[in-house]
Amino acid sequence: MSQETATESSRRAVRSDRLRNRERILDAARAVFSADGIDAPLDRIVKTAGVGPGTLYRHFPTRADLWTAVLAEPLGRYLTAIDDALAQDDAWEGFSHLVHAICALDADPHGYPGLLNTRFADAPELQELRRRIQLGITRIFARAHQAGAIRADATHQDLFFVTLSNACVVEATKDIAPEAWRRNVAFYLDAFRPDQRRELPVPPPHRSATRCCRHQAGVSPKAHAQGPVHSP
Where are the transmembrane segments (predicted)? Predict the structure, then answer.
């Protein structure tokens, strides 16, 4: 083997090694961000990927660089949901599609809870995606208002509270009643349009499962008994 051939083979090996390390870091970041949130410590990603800190920072010098590489694609799914909602001829169907799609993305066990509510400091590409998502949501609310499809006092800020509370339901029920969030979203939608009754898509969890969910969420039975909402 000539010196030139050996040098080229060595370069290819280095490139392949760099690509493998990059993919290992990205796979680890997806898993850690999904499980622990996108502010999870970077050393946890390093440990999961089985690489050194220097390798991480050579590929992604800042957290924002890593965010952009991992989160641009899932944010794009929200844009797709918005486009699908706007494509609906009926304003209510478009609005309900949006709410359900966003909550479904948040409920994805491989998703990233709270993604829409993150500002992504120092990550301009993600900030632009978030801006487009916000504009799309505003358009969908405006169309629904113009058609009289949702209550007049509903605003796009209400969607923040819907996704926030639904994330709590998803977290509390994921190992016990993983489809319970669908029933929850049906209640949310009826709250936006109270004159329309919709059949709930799944039955409520069994009482024992409900107790377990409360325990996982850190809510004691005593606190519930003293509150305004009665236990089932």
Answer: none
